Amino acid sequence: MLGEKIVVVGATGLVGREMLRILCEEGVPLSNVMAIASQKSKGGLLDYGNSKLEIFDLSDISFEDYDTAFFSAGSDVSRIYAPIAADAGCLVIDNTSYFRMNDDIPLVVPEVNIAEARKFKNKKVIANPNCSTIQMVVPLKPLHDAFGLRELVVSTYQSTSGAGKDGVNELMFQTSEIVSGNSVKPECFKKQIAFNVIPQIDVFTDNLYTKEELKMMNETKKILDLYDIDITATCVRVPVVIGHAVSVFAKFERNVFLSEVVEVLKTFKGVQVVDDANSYEYATPVDVTSKNDVFVSRLRKHPTIENALSFWCVADNLRKGAALNAIQIAKML
Ligand SMILES: NC(=O)c1ccc[n+]([C@@H]2O[C@H](COP(=O)([O-])OP(=O)(O)OC[C@H]3O[C@@H](n4cnc5c(N)ncnc54)[C@H](OP(=O)(O)O)[C@@H]3O)[C@@H](O)[C@H]2O)c1
């Protein structure tokens, strides 16, 4: 991938900027990267290491001239332009939810199911999963292989950057207003996010789960290729800038032994175990910002429920939850 021509659609967004940072870290030359955003950003400049990258809009691009296209500009843009890029011969990696549950489109976390990425059926499009789902399935994969996953009860603690730059701006603005004694009116989120937590991410569906909760439940089954497990999710927005956390309760077919669990996780690529109650060692969102791995803490076997394990996992949602996962897929292909 390093020698290829790459286009980043949504380059001025939180995911797009992280993508540019990683491409630069990977040594991709500035001349091989095109940055696309909406019309209002056209002509502006973005940091690319110590250099600047000019911003274009979608009317400027001929996808024929590019090998890989990363999309993170929302579902509407992906719906229209991802097929155009794929037809022009680009490998498309899409960060939005638009293609994720399409049977013909692979939904890929490289550590878990990279083989799926090679099974293009109709189009050269690969979907990047939901951010909380990615970080949860990385530790679940080796645990499933070792003990046989049967049931999951999960709650998320998702940072405001998961809602893009508007989400982070709202947290910052509300925090300073409230500290100054002023009242605030929610705009990006449905309730005040500063000094609060909100048990709603994305819209409510007919069965009263939110769309984000259904994404976690359905995408986990597709990625792990496990359609007969029971999963319930509660997704919560918290006043954190970067880093999602997920509290996981998992039941398995076989008995789980903590020492084996730790061994299985420690030897799996992409997972770091940080877990020592005696010295208060556990991962928090602040600890994992700008890190690539998924951090697992608070591992404990349930005292009365058979074959049940609880743990806490944390990752940088903009990196492993989005930009890094997409770039890892492209590199592995
Ligand atoms: N944030 C996360 O943790 C995360 C994780 C996984 C997946 N995702 C998905 O990735 C996508 C982007 O998320 P984000 O957090 O980066 O959002 P964001 O910070 O709001 O950025 C949105 C990006 O889309 C661009 N854009 C909007 N309309 C466009 C158009 N018509 N043509 C071209 N570009 C357009 C924006 O350009 P302007 O700056 O010019 O408006 C900006 O670059 C979303 O679909 C999101 O669901 C996000």
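^ NAP complex. The chain has two domains: 6-129+323-332, 133-316. The chain has nine helices and 13 strands.
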